[in-house]
Amino acid sequence: MDMKQYQKENSKIEYSHNYWGFQIAIYLFLGGLGGGILFLTWVMSSFVFPGADLVQAFMLPNFVALLCIVLGLFFLVEELGQPPVFYRAYVTATSIIKWGAVLLTIASFGDLFWLLGNWSPESPVLGWISVFNFFGGLSGVWLAAAGIAGFGIMVYTGVMLSTLKAHSFWSTPALPILFTTSALSTACAGIMLSLCGWPGVVGLEGLAAGHEVHELLHVLDIILAFAELTILLIMVLSFLGAGNRTQQRVAQRWVKGSMAGWFWIGMICCGLLIPLVLNISGNALAGTIACVLVLCGGCLLRFMCVWSDDRQPLPDENRYYFRLKTADKRLFTLYYKEGKELERGQNWAPRENMY
Amino acid sequence: MTRYAMAIDQKRCVGCHSCSVACRTWNDLPMDIIYNPVLGGVVEGEWPNVHRNWVPTLCMHCKNPECVPCCPTGASQQDEDGVVWVDSKICMGCKVCVNACPYGMRDTSHMVRRFDGFVRKCTFCKERRAMEPGKDPYCVQTCHQHARIFGDIDDPNSEISKLIGRSDTFRLMEELGTDPQIYYIPDLGGTR
User: Fold this and answer.
1) What ipTM is given for this predicted complex?
2) Is residue B191 part of a domain?
3) B50 in a structural domain
4) Of A174, A189, B5, B163, which residue is most buried, by most CB within 10 angstroms?
5) pLDDT score of A8 more than 60
6) Closest chain A residue by Cα to residue B105
């Protein structure tokens, strides 16, 4: 291979600093969604509509929140190097991960106890669970615990990334605000999709209260989508114009680089603008589609942020790892990771050495 | 109090990578992990005054390490002598410290065996120095150019203290406030 072709082939290769996989992105999304649902449920039940009977209306949203948190934790544990010893995460007080683990535990148990305490004996789904109704006496306490912890989880997902100041794109106060706004927005969508959906008896008063909650969340989701759009654009465009070199590189990738399609079409249009328009139109079907799009947009935001973990390179670091040739990477991957036999010249060819 | 540090004389380094090889051999590292890559090697200057500027790296064993307080299990630790290390028996492989390190000097051994993945890093050959007191880390001992100088920076009579005292040094990404303990004596300028 001549040098020009070699340089052309390898000109776009950049040493990747990706350490966290897709599991962390899903965990951040599901954690934010679950935490947001719990927080909004608590606020609606305790402060906005304190007298209304919203228990049955909120059964399914809270069940979805529990599923989200448990599934998110599953992905988090799966991503660990040593999943069987995940319980060690609770040890160090200075670690943000520890506080995240504590909040997730409080939220999931608070929500579980609330669900068990309010499980109706007439419910066609697992009615026998009503034997746990002794939890019902403390229903308000469980919901408050889950709601407060849920708020903590929403904030924590963004703070966890922003404390890692090695990654310039994450290390900004805007990221926790963006993640919290997005978590609230997706939580509104999640609640609207599942409100009053529990297969049990919902009284007329409950249905009316549920309708009022739906209306309120509808307006709230419009405001949140607008706020999220503003924060996202300000953050990315300010990085592009006035960020350091690493921030600029990531922002360029988002705005006009390899991730531009995902950013403009996926996140801005499908995840924010179209739901905004559909929600404003007021149509019920359009509202449902908007909720689904908001959820997809929130998930895409977490993926894009987790994959934007560029670190300021050391002097000539990219060049060094660039010279560990793609062929050598293939050798490492196939031979050492997958244990495949390699034949020189066929599925592996040694290339230039480190000098 | 003892505080270990390293000085790297860029005038002496010829980019032979023998420190990387020695480290990998002593620590029995898998193929995808390098504790002390020798970066740089770009040709600078104009003929006949040209030189190649090598930047041998390793864990900076910072005084204010980002990677220690973020560890949820307490596996990432710093000794009183300043050496930052990971207790593989406690580490659960969450990779927060790997993401926290601004220098990218931590690695995971995930590629070797799943369910036994923990974070690895340079420890200034902590085990070796415990077994053979007075010995230098392997990368220091192997460097035939004596480009790596290791020692107690708090001891005014140590070679490293004297060298740093009479040289113009710089440290990588000092602006982050981590107070790295690897001092570079640049190729141009340097020892007075």
Assistant:
1) 0.87
2) no
3) yes
4) A189
5) no
6) A314
Contact between B135 and B72 (Cβ < 8 Å): no
What confidence tens digit (pLDDT) does each residue in A130-155 have?
666 666 677 889 999 999 999 999 99
B170 touches chain A (CB under 8 A): no
For A18, residues 6+ apart whose C-beta sits below 8 A from its C-beta are A307, A309
Residue A85 CB contacts under 8 Å (≥ 6 apart), including other chains: B92
Nearest by CB to residue A332, choosing from B31, B55, B116, is B31
Give the Cα separation of A139 and A52 in Å (integer): 15
Q: How far is A308 from chain B (nearest CA, A)?
A: 12
Q: B92 and A317 in contact by Cβ < 8 A?
A: no
What is the distance between the terminal CA atoms of chain B, rounded to a whole angstrom? 27
CATH number, domain at B101?
3.30.70.20
Determine the distance in angstroms separating the CA of A169 from the nearest CA of chain B, rounded to an integer.
13
> Is B192 contained in some domain?
no
Average pLDDT over chain B, rounded to whole?
88
3-state secondary structure of A31: helix
CATH number of A19-312: 3.40.50.10300, 1.20.1630.10, 3.40.630.30, 1.20.272.10? Answer: 1.20.1630.10
A60-97 pLDDT tens trace: 999 999 999 999 999 999 888 888 888 988 888 888 88
pLDDT of residue A207: 81
What's the pLDDT score for residue A331?
Answer: 62
* Nearest neighbour of B104 by CB, restricted to A83, A164, A311: A311
CB atoms within 10 A of CB A105: 15
The whole-number pLDDT of residue B134 equals 87
Q: Do B99 and A166 touch (CB under 8 A)?
A: yes
Q: Which residues contact B51 (CB under 8 A, 6 or more apart)?
A: B43, B44, B45, B187
Q: What is the pLDDT of residues A184-197, one digit of tens each?
A: 999 999 999 998 77
Residues of A with CB under 8 A from a CB of B: 17, 19-20, 79-86, 88-92, 94-98, 101, 163-167, 309, 311-312, 314-317, 319-320, 331-332, 336-337, 354-355
DSSP characters over A149-176: HHHHHHHHHHHHHHT-TTBTTTSSTHHH
Structure confidence at residue A351 as a pLDDT band (50, 70, 90) = very low
State pLDDT tens for residues B79-120.
999 999 999 889 998 999 999 999 989 887 554 445 567 888
Q: Say whether A95 and B117 touch across the interface (CB within 8 A).
A: no
Higher pLDDT, A315 or B168: B168
Beta bridge partners, B148, equal: B8
